[in-house]
Amino acid sequence: MWSNFIRFMAPARCRLCHAPTPAEGLCRDCRARLPRPERACPQCALPLPAGSTDALCGECLSDPPAFDRAHVPLLYSPPLDGLIAGLKYHGRLAHARLLIEAFGPPPAGPPPDCLIPVPLHPARLRTRGFNQAAELARLLAERAGLPWDGDSLVRIRAAPAQRASGRRQRLRNVRGAFAWRGRAPCPPRVALVDDVVTTGATARAAAACLKRAGAQWVEIWAVARTPENEGRRTGDPASPADGDL
Ligand SMILES: [Zn+2]
Ligand SMILES: [Zn+2]
Question: Which one of the ligands is nearest to 56 CA?
Fold first, then answer.
C-alpha cells in the first residue's frame, strides 16, 4: 500500500512527453511514434526512396561492404537525435537505456557469438570519458544474454571530421583506422554496435577489420541511421558526423 501511495504521489513519467507511465522510460505512444524508415537497404540500412523496388541500395550493389547485414531500426531525427546527443555530448548515461528501449528486440535469426562496440580513439575516449557505443553494447548484451567485448577491436587512428568530405575521402579517412588486439581470433558471428550510422564508412572499415581477424558474419546493430549526406550539411555540433562514425 505504501509503495502504491509513493507511486501515486510521484508516478514514473515518460522521458519524452512526461505522461505518467507504468515504468521508467518511454511511454507506449512515444515508442510507437519513433521515426522509422518505410524501406531500407537490408545490407546497410540506408533508407530507400518510397516506392523503390530495389533489393539493395546502389552503394551496396556497386561496392559491397564487409558487413553482411545491418539492423538499424530508426531514423536519426527528433526525438532520437536529441537523446543521442544528450548521451554523447552531455554525458547523460541514462539516455543509453532509453536508446536500447527504442532499439527494441534484437533482429531475428541466429544470435551473434559476441557484441563488439565500435571503438573510439583513445584520445577521444579521454576527452569524452566513455564510449557511447560500449554503453549500448553492454546494455544490449545484458538484455540479450550475450557476451560483449569492448577491448579487442581498437581504433589506432583518429578520424578527421568527415562533415565536408565526399565518399571516397570518407572511406580513405577510416582505412586502417581499426586493429584487432584480441588474444584469440574474432568469433565467427559478430554484431558490431554503434549509436548512429551516418555514412557507413566507419562500419565498413571496422567490419573489414573483424573479417580479417576471423569473423565470418558481421552485422551492424545501431539505433539510428541518417539518410545519406544528412548531418554533413550542417555545422550543428550535435550532428552525429563528428568524425567517430
Ligand atoms: Zn511519452
Ligand atoms: Zn545498402
Answer: 2
Which ligand is nearest to the Cα of residue 34, counting in written order?
A: 1
Q: Compute, in angstroms, the gap from residue 53 CA to the centroid of ligand 2.
A: 13
Exposed, middle or buried: residue 125 (CB in 10 Å: 0-12, 13-18, 19+)? middle
Ligand that comes closest to the CA of residue 79: 1
Ligand 2 centroid – CA 121 distance (Å): 26
Calculate how far, in angstroms, residue 73's C-alpha sits from the geometric centre of ligand 1. 19
Furthest-apart CA atoms within the chain: distance in Å: 63
Beta bridge mates, 47: 40
User: From ligand 1's centre to the CA of 74, what distance in Å?
Assistant: 17
User: What ligand has the least distance to the C-alpha of 28?
Assistant: 1
> What is the C-alpha separation between 130 and 128, in angstroms, rounded?
6
- Grid coordinates in use for 16? 519524452
Q: Which domains does the chain have, with CATH numbers?
A: 1-33 (no CATH), 35-225 (3.40.50)
* Residue linked to cell 514514473: 12
Q: What's the CA-to-centroid distance between 33 and ligand 1, angstroms?
A: 9
Per-residue pLDDT of the chain (245 residues; tens, 9 = 90+): 666 665 556 778 999 999 998 887 999 999 999 999 999 999 999 999 888 888 899 999 999 999 999 999 999 999 999 999 999 999 999 999 999 999 999 999 999 999 999 999 999 999 999 999 999 999 999 999 999 999 999 999 887 765 657 788 888 888 889 999 999 999 999 999 999 998 899 999 999 999 999 999 999 999 999 976 444 433 343 444 444 43
Distance 12 CA to ligand 1 centre (A): 11
Q: Which three cell numbers stand for residue 227?
A: 539518410
